[in-house]
Amino acid sequence: MLIRPWRPWSLSENEITPESTYLNRRQVLAGMGFGVAATAISGSVFAKGAMAAVTGIPAERNPAFVLDRDITDEEEATTYTNFYEFGSSKNIWRAAQKLVTDPWAVTIDGMVEEDITIDAEDLVAKLGGVEERLYRHRCVEAWAMAVPWTGIPLKKLVEFARPDAGAKYLRIETFHDTSIASGQRQSWYPWPYVEGLTVQEANNELALLATGIYGKPMPNQNGAPIRLVLPWKYGFKSIKSIRRITFTDQQPVSFWQDLQAKEYGFWANVNPEYAHPRWSQATERLLGSNERVPTQKYNGYAEWVEPLYAAMPQTRELFF
To answer: Do the Cβ atoms of 118 and 105 come closer than 8 Å?
Structure first.
């Protein structure tokens, strides 16, 4: 008799988009003048009613991912955010409403079997398996929250892209539109925002392409229509509003690394033992309660991710 042992990363049964729902929306878009092509499709997953129908939001919660703290109040998590494209204050959620997420095309290119530009909604539908996960989120600024994200394991996108054997990294880029994003008019920043991770990290069970939060479509200020969530790393690695994912054999230079490499490195794994040059990382402030709690190595996800770095020197470089 075959016995399958339980694993902490075991997934719940996937939800599949009903074909009738998908086809009905394509007909509506066609009537509005949006063309549909095999590799370049306009439209968006993030017209709010359409997203709920097509991507299964609210999604079933995956019980493998649990928290050791209360979920952060929704208003706190959606109004206290970083999005430097719209300004450097935490109160940018109003300005972020200028971002138009319908239509929204995502390009997957580089060292892949075939370059593709695809509507975000169609990408989510093709990848399938939308689920909700409870994750801790740790900002490099030493504040933290606990959030129910909705999304798809990033490894599904890696499988979909069919990268070449020589591809080692994902270079991920957000939008660049100075007409709506006032922060992008500040020429001292290296726009557009770029982040990167290894293919091995992308294939880790924790890495998530998030499309929603609190059982709702993703708000603009939190990274609509599609963002990355890497809960074992500092939050600046979890790039928002993704436009392009490029598979490459060259390590990407990320936005903050380009700006100040001594403070924001490529790896940026959470570790309380390594202070930021301007503040301690030993504790973190929980949004809402403002309680100070000890920071955990890899933000508490060592069980999942330590094997990724076992062969690497455990130095400050790995944690910044």
So the answer is: yes
Q: How far is CA 304 from the centre of its chain?
A: 17
- The alpha carbon of 194 is separated from its chain's Cα centroid by a whole number of angstroms, namely 12
- Residue type (1 letter), 190: P
Q: Are 61 and 134 in contact (CB under 8 A)?
A: yes
- The rounded distance, in Å, linking the Cα atoms of 237 and 195 is 6
Retrieve residue 71's tokens.
Answer: 């979920």
- Coil, strand or helix at 61: strand
Residue 147 to residue 8: CA distance in whole angstroms: 19
Residues of the chain with pLDDT under 50: 1-53
Closest by Cα among 298, 107, 277, 69 to 206:
298
In the block, which residue shows the tokens 């306009």?
42
| Domains with residue ranges and CATH for the chain | 19-319 (3.90.420.10)
Bridge partners (DSSP) of residue 114 are none
pTM: 0.84
